[in-house]
Amino acid sequence: MDSNDSKTPQIADICLILEGTYPYVTGGVSSWTHQLITNLPEFTFHLHCLIAEKEPGPWLFPRPNNVIGVSNLSLGQWSSENEEPQEPLDDNEEHELLGVIESFHRDLLSGSPEAFERLFGIFYRMGLSSKLFTTLSSGREAWNLIQKFYKEQFSQESFIDFFWMWRTTHLPLFSLLASPVPKARLYHSLASGYAGILGVMGKLAYERPLILTEHGLYTRERKIEIALAQWIGSGNARDDMTIRPINTSVKGFWMRIFEQLGRIVYHYSDHIITLFEGNRRIQIRDGAPAEKTKVIPNGIRVFSETKIREVQKAQSEKLSVAMIGRVVPIKDIKTFIQACRIVRDQLPEVQFLIMGPMNQDPEYVKECQNLVEILKMGDAIQFTGSVRVEDYLPKMDLLVLTSLSEAQPLVVMEGAIFGVPSVTTRVGACNELINGRTREDVALGPGGIVTSVGNPEETALAMLKILKDDGLRKRMGYAARLRMERFYREDLLFEAYRTLYQEGIG
């Protein structure tokens, strides 16, 4: 479950709770986190990291001096798996625990967040023991409870679907509840969902404030992933070995669980931060108290014009287009690849780069690579893996982002600093970053083109419009850079969080 850095028993000012990001994964949220820590040296930080594997990978960032502790929790792994097998709880403890879980589950689906406090209380009182988790993962009464919920709500559907949905959603939650949270003066979760639940646990255990920052909207992204899931080894009432599409009602149940976990985190958070106004409105719609919400945009460091001129590409180089991001379904890399094929038909000399981590969804990576081969684009599209984007951006002519969901993508801002225009999907703050937010901002002109989600033809047309017109490309690049200089400065970001931290630590 964990791999902890315990060099010092010192209590950190801030416990940052991270899920699948910093410091082991590169990307926009990870870069943002590193900037925040290094630019607030007066605070000490403990990193509490949810990771996918049993053991963490190497640090992909220099370790800041003010990070005084690191702990890792592998979601789905249990800390005692290498110890002697544990007996389950005794009958009285088991009956009490499962009664609270049943009550919590009913309250969860009815929209009541307070039941979580009772559930956490019993886990905390029982000592966060492995006996408790053994009871929940393989105990007879837990099995009976699963059957009871199935018969009440899904008796006409596949039990196999329901069973694996239950384990997929509940066992990680139980694993979190049965894990310790580092003591700190303030908790700051960078996502709702499971990371947010850990933040709530810290708040309840130590009676300290909780800040939630949502770059993307966790619940919305999980719902997209569930909706995109096509197949599961499952059955129906008559044939438990059938492979068929996941039932819509089971998907809906799965989505509701994530929705209510998000509501729990909103309920207990003292401040709920997002990056742009559109997301704040969605947070309120999804249950966040309006008075707790606040917009703090991403900030960007602006280089001098002299430095940019020093790294500009030579005029004789070929046109280069980059898609920067993780190679995962939420980034919709396949739409970008299809758009590249259309562009190549008219501009055969253009080179395309897909820059970002390739280890998070190997199956999807393989599908993308196969698509490149099918479209005969192997000589034009390069997968670089993780790179230092600042080494590539000055040489790019255009950035493309085909994501299904984004918040305020840092890569668009980074490209703008180097005068690189972008073609993005109409998600998150992309329209504000490209076309402006206020009247003064809009007056600067567009810094690129915004297109529909999942539309390779429209994406390709936007790419061609910019690539074929040198003057337009330069004007858009200039407007993009000017927008960053005037309206997106990193010093405003750091000052906003400095104030929140000072108030919370008190």
Automatic annotation (TrEMBL):
For molecular function, the Gene Ontology terms on record are: glycosyltransferase activity
Q: Which SUPFAM superfamilies match?
A: UDP-Glycosyltransferase/glycogen phosphorylase
Q: Which InterPro entries match?
A: DUF3492 (IPR022622), Glyco_trans_1 (IPR001296), PelF-like (IPR047691)
Bilayer-spanning residue ranges: none
Q: Which residues form a coiled coil?
A: none
* Pfam families in the record: DUF3492, Glycos_transf_1
Residues annotated as domain DUF3492: 12-290
- Enumerate the spans annotated as Glycosyl transferase family domain: 306-482
Q: Which UniProt keywords apply?
A: Transferase
Q: State the organism named in the record.
A: Leptospirillum ferrooxidans (strain C2-3)
Q: What is this protein called?
A: Putative glycosyl transferase, group 1
